[in-house]
Amino acid sequence: MATYLKQTSLAAGKPSSTKVDVPGIVRGVIDDIRSQGDAAVRRYSEKFDKWSPPSFKLSKDDIDAIVSKVPKQTLDDIRVVQQNVRTFALAQRKSINDFELEIRPGVHLGQKNIPISSVGAYIPGGRYPLLASAHMTIVTAKAAGVPRVIACTPPIMGVIPSSTVAAMHYAGADDIYILGGVQAVSAMAVGTETIGKVDFIAGPGNPFVAEAKRQLFGEIGIDLPAGPTEVLIVADEYADPSTVATDLLSQAEHGPDTPAILITTSRALGEQVIKEVDRLLKILPTSAIASVSWSTFGEVIVVNNLDEAYKLADTYASEHVQILTESPREALEKMFHYGALFLGEKTCVSYGDKVIGTNHVLPTKGAARFTGGLWVGKYLKTVTYQEVTSEKESGELGRLCGRAARAENFEGHARSGDVRAMKYMGDKFEWLDGQKNGVHT
């Protein structure tokens, strides 16, 4: 039976009486950009970002000048992180194989994995310049073999985020636009006079960006429906309270609506973590944000044993699940619903967010029950093909198709099979009377 040392307090998270109509605002922006193109893009960029340069697209000279302003250490770190992401993504790509199988003599079935032709990567700005999102979206797309990747990022307080541009450039973006929000996503999705339409959009963003991707899904593909960052830690009595508290707050600083949850087998640990979180919030530079998440969505739950902990953790299907136990790899066998696992004290969610090489675009809001996160396979279309070279097998399949289709009252389908059964097996069909070998007499 679970005991809650701390429960969510949603009173602070109740919506205000002046609720913003996010879907309606987004729908209006998309419709305007669809009908007015670049003029609407510029109007909304001026309105939302106070940004209206002669061209939203950066030239090669622009990029070179911007990258030259980035500290050498930052550029070196970008290269190292991107090589980690690239190495893992290429290994994923290598694991996905084309194949052809002859299931019966002369009956060939095959599978091919074809990269999406064009991808748009959205790299958020807002509260933080998210360099890592460039690594995760663009590098992975290029590892999949996507020939054209364009990338958008907003100005931050009227300034081009130079480190983000460097990350986009080194990641392999073919075109870079300083453009943000719904207007960027819409322009990439529907196309304008100067921004070519893409087939797929990846990358996180604020609720308006997430809603734009949701509304445009179907017209384009998207990586995942996005929600607030989530972290859940499973810990036993061997865990260090300071480490647990620090790791919870490392994610709580993402935004004021981040669930930060501890499930532990030790009441003493749970109580110590609560005290340590309170202490750390007094000295954390981002405590204004993290404290709201912790007070509103933070939970500390004590269970009887680790089996109960894993079972309860699975009900959350959290984006990030960190295992701080004596035997962390046990979770690989006992947990099933998570975006990504982080095993042991030497590993932390921040590594996955920023540097280690796995992708940080992960399912939220329980979506981990049915999907994983962004990976090289999201940028591939797995397609099939078939060929029958044996007359006998084509005739047998024709007979089978005729029977199967008529069981569903699909007479047209059945007749496609009948033609092959007649040609290759000599079968007679009333509807084919007056024909010989499929040709009118």
What does this structure look like?
This protein has helices spanning 22-36, 38-49, 60-67, 72-95, 131-144, 162-171, 181-190, 207-216, 241-252, 267-281, 287-297, 306-316, 330-334, 349-354, 391-407, 411-425; strands at residues 3-6, 99-104, 107-115, 118-122, 148-153, 175-178, 200-202, 221-222, 231-235, 260-264, 299-302, 320-324, 340-343, 380-388, 435-436, 439-440. The protein has 3 domains: 52-94 and 113-223, Nitrogenase molybdenum iron protein domain (Rossmann fold, 3-Layer(aba) Sandwich); 228-373, 3-Layer(aba) Sandwich (Rossmann fold), CATH 3.40.50.1980; 390-440, no CATH class. It has 441 residues and is of the alpha/beta class. Strands 1-11-10-9-12-13 form a 6-stranded mixed beta sheet, with helices on both faces. The chain has a 5-stranded parallel beta sheet with strand order 6-5-4-7-8, with helices on both faces. A 3-stranded antiparallel beta sheet has the order 2-3-14. Its cofactor is Zn(2+). Pfam families: Histidinol_dh (PF00815).
Topology:
Elements: E1 3-6, H1 22-36, H2 38-49, H3 60-67, H4 72-95, E2 99-104, E3 107-115, E4 118-122, H5 131-144, E5 148-153, H6 162-171, E6 175-178, H7 181-190, E7 200-202, H8 207-216, E8 221-222, E9 231-235, H9 241-252, E10 260-264, H10 267-281, H11 287-297, E11 299-302, H12 306-316, E12 320-324, H13 330-334, E13 340-343, H14 349-354, E14 380-388, H15 391-407, H16 411-425, E15 435-436, E16 439-440
Helix pairs in contact: 1-2, 1-7, 1-8, 2-7, 4-5, 4-6, 5-6, 7-8, 9-10, 9-11, 15-16
